[in-house]
Amino acid sequence: MAPLVQVEQLEKRFGEVRALDRVSFEVDAGEWIAIMGPSGSGKTTLINILGGLDHPSAGRVVVDGVEIGSLAERELTRYRADKIGFVFQQFHLIPYLTALENVMLAQYFHSITDEKDAAEALRRVGLSDRLSHVPAELSGGEQQRVAIARALINQPKLILADEPTGNLDEVNEAVVLKLLHELNEAGHTILVVTHSQAIGNLADRRVELEHGRLARISAPSLAKE
Amino acid sequence: MFLRILWKLLGASRGRLAVALIALTSGAAVCSALLNVNLDAERKLTQEFRTLGANVVIAPPAGGSEAALVDAAVLDRVAALRLPQIVATAPYLYVAANSGSQPVILAGTWFDQVAKMNSWWKVEGGWVSSRDDHEHCLVGFTAARQLGLAPGSSVQLRSGDRNISLTVAGIVTTGGAEDNQILTNLDSSQALAGLSGRVSLVQVSVSGTPSEIEGVTRKLADILPGLDVRPVRQIAAAEGTILGRIQGLIFWTIALILVLSMLGVLASMAALAMERRQDVGLMKALGGTVPRIMRLFLAEAGTLGALGGLLGFLLGVILARWIGERIFGVVISARIEVLPITIALTIGVALAGAFPLRLLGRVRPAEILRGE
Description:
The complex is a heterodimer of chains A (about 220) and B (about 375). With about 220 residues, chain A is of the alpha/beta class. Chain A is about 35% helix and about 25% strand.
């Protein structure tokens, strides 16, 4: 079976700066991958390209059979709606929409809205009693759980999480990681950008970047157990 | 979901949207008031113009002898037309007569009709109100001075071997030929001149726009073949010019007000666009296409425009009444056809003012979500 994600000789340049330099790796469906490395190593650039938010300068990126580099802006938008679920460090919820409406917004841009499905997604992340709360009325952990419910709602092929616990305390970090683990157990493919060794150890494999280059790919299976 | 998000958008930035709504409502109020005034003022002004003298004349054919006269039966034929635009019809028979040794021109006419079409004449003493009054006359200001006449004086008039004696009811100042004449009852002049059933000309006061006056003139010409029926060009043209200028003034004022409203909306929307960059970046990341996201914002602007147009229309009706009473001295009634025009104009202004929101389509989600 072909891998879900194929990254071949990927380059991304910002002027003279090479944010990514000939990076290659593959991800199979159902894997949990941690993308690690120091600040400025190209982690977020990599996840932005995988998520169709940025264009590669050279190389090839194929996700679920779609070569992202060849897509026009409109096709990239459709690609994001169909195949990607994002979870950001800053949560990025629309402040004037309720938790339920924030989840439904992803449905709205994907196809049609279904309030029952959106409520079920929020129940799944433990927020069935927070449906009509706006983000300002939710804790950081609850906001991130809304973001996870939003990422899940359209059954994406790939969940991309950029420092999903970066703004959370230990208790909420544990809740979010448990959720991501459950999603992975349920068959979702997850790529998590993280600085945390502890989170990296939870992944099936770690893709480590340094100065935009692939430093190593390791499998911390022992640590995970 | 579209309406749900739209409702939330309207509630989210109440302060900025309120400023835009005030700009739109103010502009719409002035536009609605001016459009109401424009529609009503034309009718009211054309009515008022009809107190400024005749604007159509029926006379013997041009090129005929100066002594040519018109059969007074034309008055019955004009009346039989029952045209609502005809405000007044005044026949005139001019007779050369003498008062003592002084020559004077008599103008025999229908006083009630003359009063109707010349209410601006300055009269010292009183009007003669009935066309059947055979005892009184009005004397022009210059003629009165030459003949030494004042209200209440008696005047003996002679033409050939016929005489009449009249009492002066009032001295009129018109600024025209009437200042040199004595206005009498038509029958009296006809009897004095021995020209029963004849008139020199007929003055007609027709209300309406220049094209409506042309239409009435054509109808009169059709039923009075052989007579010269013509509009008094200077008056008709002056009325047309005044109406045209008022309409031009209203048009350009509305255009200016709409531009100013748009600038007000533009300022609010520019600030709003900065606030919404993050939301748009996120919507694009979630798979929202630019047209779909813009539809939300344009619907928001359009809703504001419709609301501003409706409120502005209502305020404009009040403003139009005030303008009507203060400037034209008339009550201007609300015209429902102004409502859709006001709303359409205000929606157009709101959409044009929402231009900064359209620039949000260029937002790059990767930059926004990085916090740039």
